[in-house]
Amino acid sequence: MKTAVLASETDFDGWRVAARALRLAGVEPVAARFVVAGADGQGGLFDIPYSAHPRESGDERNRDEFTVPAAFVDLARDVILHRSADRFDLMYRLLWRLRDEPDLTKVVSDRDVADAMERARNVSRSSHKMKAFVRFRQTHDAHGEAWVAWFEPAHRVVERTAPFFQRRFTTMRWSILTPDGSAHWDTETLSFGPPATRDMAPAEDEIEAFWKTYYASTFNPARLKLKTMQGEMPKSYWKNLPEAALIPGLTAASQGRTEAMVATPAPAPNARFMRAVARDLHAARPDAEVVPADLAEVERGVQACRRCPLYRDATQGVCGEGPKAARLMIVGEQPGDQEDLAGRPFVGPAGQVLDEALEEAGVDRVDVYVTNAVKHFKHEPRGKRRLHRTPDAGEVTACRWWLDAERRLVQPKLVLALGATAGLALLGRKPAVIRERGQALTLDDGSVGMLTVHPAYLLRLPDRAAQSEARRAFVEDLSAARHLIG
Amino acid sequence: MARLDLRKKLSILADAAKYDASCSSSGTSKRDSVGGKGIGSTEGMGICHAYTPDGRCISLLKILLTNFCIYDCAYCINRASSNVERARFDVDEVVDLTLNFYRRNYIEGLFLSSGIIRSGDYTMEQLVLVAKTLREVHDFRGYIHLKLIPEADPKLVEMAGLYADRLSANIELPRDEALARLAPQKDVAVIKKAMSQVRLGVEAARPAKRDKIKPPKFAPGGQSTQLIIGADGAPDTEILDRSASLYGGYGLRRVYYSAFSPIPDSSSVLPLSKPPLMREHRLYQADWLMRFYGFSAPEIGEGAAGGMLDLAVDPKLAWALNKRAQFPVDVNRAPREMLLRVPGLGVKAVDRIVSVRRYRTLRLEDVGRLTRSVAKVRPFITALDWTPGALTDAADLKARVTSRSPEQLSLF
């Protein structure tokens, strides 16, 4: 049996040096032992006393030296903070096996690896709980205000966790006292000291009464879930949490409080409310059946529209935009994701294509009334995105109420429909866009219409040549429209 | 004496705020107080500083600025017609409480909401003022979650995004019709528009690659909302459709589900009963399936009878029991997306399986070490030394894998 002596319970460097020496000497895991100096009054002769070992240095590499994955070193650094007595042995066993199984740390289904990872998780959790459950109390000394906490961590995580408090409370002077050791921050330097006792920390803090008030008030007695609470805030921590003293009382009273709430009949509304608020309650909503007399009424009507279910998943209705006596009206299919958010037509990618094409055709968009056949965005959610869906004939027909109102009120010389859906809304039949595009068509109210493709179609074309050809034809149609309106 | 008053106010205004389930302090930008004049840090992972016996965590100081309110939403304890005791904090009182709690490591920061007083604009201004004071006067770098008052001027929303980590506006009722009936002064369209503004703000603040100067931060912790469960008649499938629509439309980080809970001084239009906690739990599980497991709302709906999720089994198991032809799945070969659909395998377990099988062919025992309970997984997988045989198609499979009764989460 070979024994290695470590300087302290958390002496990772000492363990690393000793473990390497043992491994190089071919000492099998069953024959290796790690003890902490001073623990259990150990004395006598040791095979690998920690003081006898030179610390690592680059130039004395032994030809037998071997490397281990960085992940193993990180794992060992964590596991060694675990309170279990056999943690050094477990990690030595893993080190021993690593030479023949270099990928071992990745085989998390292996018994030893799973064990080590479980302990590392416990250590990490213990550090997380320390960040959560340390409670500082205010005190004053010769240097002024200071903050002191007494804490009992589940594992030996004080040194590992102290930098978190340094980053968080940089401008405060604080100390965290634990049975394993203490951490101190003087606003400039982080230092560590010997184990402490509870009586070295302040016994009270005047703000704790407020904290307890908050704890009790934020608790909802109608949803008691003690197991969930204890899973996250294990009882072992309760003795150092001022608020935990309230748990038994709150728990005991919860059933009675809930029953009382359920049993009490609804009281009469308070008098002040009846005087001040109640009469304003049922404000009239715009009536969707009234024929709009101007574009502002169209806007209000569209926002209240329930003629089809598309309003439900859309943000808002998107009405047309442009001069109320525009000579050219352009009708698209429906608002897209960006239009739905902004509440304005053609502001997304397809809108950009349209703007550029209009400019090329010599049409100023500010002179055009731009709108859509369907005023709400039809889509399907896919994770954090919304995928466009083509509106069906029923939705197009329902929304014609609004498009017809816009046409009646604006009375453009020409209505240009972009794509098949807009064509359907205009003509009452599904047109063959490519065949019918660019020609003047007489609409049922006697006005003039024209068809072309939707700019989104240009965006969808895969190859560049086809795209630029389609774009040229689109601009040509827009130019033809410009000539028609004179 | 003044102190006593403050404690009373705290008690009223914490009680008034507790029906909002959100408590998250995660997912914002990383920062700390090094080099600053104040205190505070956020390091990615949220921290829950305490748990109350209702199993909910305390991460933030969650309070209302005031519980006076001109709105009369039937489900809300603070509605105008309620006889509940009223109080109002000064801006400085909230700032002091936040800093005093934070210094003692009780909290990660502040979650401030408010009843509507005077107007949406006025109320939002007050909320923004608290956040601004914490950030600019005290150089506070902890977490701030501000409630959006949807009716407020977009300029105030913009300011809120400058100081807050997270913004939220609550939809509250899954059914628009119910919102119109139970919260007559609220308008779902206005709430959605506020959410749109937040999404556009967050997207505008994301620096493009070629930006030399970074745009100012805007709500780096994103936005969230809450749906109350059991106050209107909406079935689970409708609720999940609504969530999917909100996640897709506004890039929400979270939709919180809050079982409608009896409140003191309740309104006569709502049923008073124990909150449907198990239903709430199943909805959270379904929500997780949508966000991390590649399920769509309609797929989850396939396993829901009459639009309601099965209370006896989790929604993934319910789905799998309906789709047995897709099982068993070979843990040594199946693609990650399919492993994610195996009941009992969580995202972490799946990632471990995918990583380990590059080095070892997995046996059932190995799978057992990578997941919490192999009993639930077994009927749906094959491994090197395991095939479920007829078990996958057994008529009583549901009973076999649900040894625990759904009653375990019941109230008393």
TrEMBL record, chain A:
<keyword id="KW-0004">4Fe-4S</keyword>
<keyword id="KW-0411">Iron-sulfur</keyword>
<dbReference type="Pfam" id="PF13566">
    <property type="entry name" value="DUF4130"/>
</dbReference>
<dbReference type="GO" id="GO:0006281">
    <property type="term" value="P:DNA repair"/>
</dbReference>
<keyword id="KW-0548">Nucleotidyltransferase</keyword>
<dbReference type="GO" id="GO:0051539">
    <property type="term" value="F:4 iron, 4 sulfur cluster binding"/>
</dbReference>
<comment type="similarity">
    <text>Belongs to the uracil-DNA glycosylase (UDG) superfamily. Type 4 (UDGa) family.</text>
</comment>
<dbReference type="GO" id="GO:0097506">
    <property type="term" value="F:deaminated base DNA N-glycosylase activity"/>
</dbReference>
<keyword id="KW-0227">DNA damage</keyword>
<feature type="domain" description="Uracil-DNA glycosylase-like">
    <location>
        <begin position="319"/>
        <end position="479"/>
    </location>
</feature>
<keyword id="KW-0408">Iron</keyword>
<dbReference type="InterPro" id="IPR005273">
    <property type="entry name" value="Ura-DNA_glyco_family4"/>
</dbReference>
<keyword id="KW-0378">Hydrolase</keyword>
<dbReference type="Pfam" id="PF03167">
    <property type="entry name" value="UDG"/>
</dbReference>
<dbReference type="InterPro" id="IPR005122">
    <property type="entry name" value="Uracil-DNA_glycosylase-like"/>
</dbReference>
<dbReference type="InterPro" id="IPR051536">
    <property type="entry name" value="UDG_Type-4/5"/>
</dbReference>
<keyword id="KW-0234">DNA repair</keyword>
<keyword id="KW-0479">Metal-binding</keyword>
<dbReference type="InterPro" id="IPR036895">
    <property type="entry name" value="Uracil-DNA_glycosylase-like_sf"/>
</dbReference>
<dbReference type="GO" id="GO:0016779">
    <property type="term" value="F:nucleotidyltransferase activity"/>
</dbReference>
<protein>
    <recommendedName>
        <fullName>Type-4 uracil-DNA glycosylase</fullName>
    </recommendedName>
</protein>
<dbReference type="GO" id="GO:0046872">
    <property type="term" value="F:metal ion binding"/>
</dbReference>
Automatic annotation (TrEMBL), chain B:
<dbReference type="InterPro" id="IPR010994">
    <property type="entry name" value="RuvA_2-like"/>
</dbReference>
<keyword id="KW-0479">Metal-binding</keyword>
<dbReference type="InterPro" id="IPR007197">
    <property type="entry name" value="rSAM"/>
</dbReference>
<dbReference type="GO" id="GO:0051536">
    <property type="term" value="F:iron-sulfur cluster binding"/>
</dbReference>
<dbReference type="GO" id="GO:0046872">
    <property type="term" value="F:metal ion binding"/>
</dbReference>
<dbReference type="GO" id="GO:0003824">
    <property type="term" value="F:catalytic activity"/>
</dbReference>
<keyword id="KW-0949">S-adenosyl-L-methionine</keyword>
<dbReference type="InterPro" id="IPR058240">
    <property type="entry name" value="rSAM_sf"/>
</dbReference>
<dbReference type="InterPro" id="IPR023874">
    <property type="entry name" value="DNA_rSAM_put"/>
</dbReference>
<protein>
    <submittedName>
        <fullName>Putative DNA modification/repair radical SAM protein</fullName>
    </submittedName>
</protein>
<dbReference type="InterPro" id="IPR013785">
    <property type="entry name" value="Aldolase_TIM"/>
</dbReference>
<dbReference type="InterPro" id="IPR051675">
    <property type="entry name" value="Endo/Exo/Phosphatase_dom_1"/>
</dbReference>
<keyword id="KW-0411">Iron-sulfur</keyword>
<keyword id="KW-0408">Iron</keyword>
